[in-house]
Specification:
Length: about 180
């Protein structure tokens, strides 16, 4: 069984050993994402010790053209380890877990706002402030998603919690109530 959280924690710990500030961690995660995208674009399967040696030569060649960066070096070493251990196929979940760890360190909370009609800017600001107050977060990372089936209103996903203020959910509740009570 693969535990992406353990791998992500190991990567974040590696980044913390450089300077340990959250900017370095964010840079390392960005470098990991970029390198992972590049490795995914390579033809053929990439796993095992032989592939890791060939990949290392390619990565080092590319890194020679970039300014030295502890975050990039950590990302390169981490990618090579995952390839060598045949775990690279899990890189996306490791990156997501690493982002979650960084969010915890910075006091950020990720919120998904789903809507049928684009909310006004004032509404978005109000939602962010309400989430900050409710969760105690220092920062709200708001992702927006158009969902026409909601008809109107919005739905918020904050971690495992869902706040549904959509027309669709109101209609569903009304339908359920009418069904239970035998109609009008």
């Amino acid at each position: 069984m693969f535990f992406s959280g353990h791998w992500a924690k190991a990567f974040v710990n590696l980044l913390e050993q450089t300077d340990g500030n959250t900017d370095d961690i964010a840079d390392g995660i960005a470098a990991l994402e970029a390198l992972a995208a590049w490795v995914k674009s390579l033809p053929g399967a990439v796993f095992g010790s032989a592939a890791a040696r060939k990949l290392e030569a390619l990565i080092r060649e590319g890194m020679a053209k970039a300014p030295p960066s502890p975050a990039l070096e950590a990302a390169a070493r981490f990618i090579l380890l995952m390839v060598k251990k045949n775990k690279f196929r899990h890189i996306d979940s490791v990156i997501e877990e690493a982002k979650s760890l960084l969010d915890k360190k910075t006091g950020a909370v990720e919120v998904l706002l789903e809507y049928a009609l684009l909310p006004e800017e004032g509404t978005i600001s109000s939602i962010k402030e309400a989430v900050k107050k409710r969760s105690g977060a220092a920062k709200v990372l708001l992702k927006e998603q158009f969902r026409p089936e909601l008809i109107g209103g919005y739905r918020l996903r904050i971690g495992d919690e869902i706040i549904d203020a959509s027309i669709l959910s109101q209609l569903s509740r009304l339908e359920a109530e009418l069904t239970v009570n035998g109609g009008f």
